[in-house]
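Before going further, learn to read the protein records used in this course. Taken together, the tokens spell out the fold as the letters spell out the chain. A record is reproduced here so that you can trace the correspondence yourselves:

***
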Amino acid sequence: MAGPELIAIGSYFDWDIAAMQAAYTVHAVDSPEALTALPEARRRAVRAIAFKGHAPLGAAQMDLLPGLGMIANYGVGFDAIDVAAARARGIRVSNTPNVLNDDVADLAVAMLLAQSRRLIEGSDWVRSGAWPKQGELPLNRKASGRRAGIVGLGRIGREIADRLAAFKMEIHYHSRTPKDTPAGWTYHADPVSLARAVDDLFVALVGGAETTGYVSREVIEALGPDGVIVNISRGSTIDEAALLDALESGAIRGAGLDVFHNEPNIDPRFLKLDNVVLQPHQGSGTIETRKAMGELQRANLAAFFAEEALVTPVT
């Protein structure tokens, strides 16, 4: 179907491409850098981008599209988009919050359970034939009843905290300001104080320059040798070198990580560790949620072309 010109950046599922093609004239490219290969006439005709991925989308790419008025991001995190550059050019930006909260929070708790109860090792113990030959898996650690700290009590952080409360955990959190929380939850004004007070530390920050290295070496050291770090935010939010040092030395007990610096080409030091659960940035990776994310992205695009208020605006 012919319709407004739309550039789709990134690797989309067939159901997303079909839905976009039903409403727009879609030009698909793999990355922002690929925009330069599009004919100038096509670039001039484009008014909106459907953006999916983590490659930087900045001023230089925006300037290739002089008629651009909208960037609809697929995902809640929009740190790959230079929002200041977009704002300066009058370009609207949207994202897809809320629809992925449950999946990401579920995975955060699952990684803590997998790390503490050695679920991956247990599966390997059975599959390898070690169980009848060597007997029981060595004892692991209890997950419920510990003290949990949430760095960033936004939408996803709150969902994580609510789940951990059901595991009889004592809830502590750090955010820019105190939140309206259930009685007994403890606010900490800085992440070092938070880490010092808890057993398990969950990182649920937004990405971007303001949070780069937020979970610093000092924070990691404050957690202590029985501590576990779970990160479902961005790899940039943690001092990764300090985290690797702590995991290798036993300064903390373990970690569950869904995000990394330079992913998917992660630091090979992680691959040698047996005290970390590694996941391939799949926090929102269920069929149901990915379909909902695409639908919300397209709802924002439809609102833009209809000159209506965006459903979930960033700017």
Remarks:
- The mean pLDDT is 97.
- The radius of gyration is 22 Å.
- Residues 76 and 97 are 5 Å apart (CA to CA).
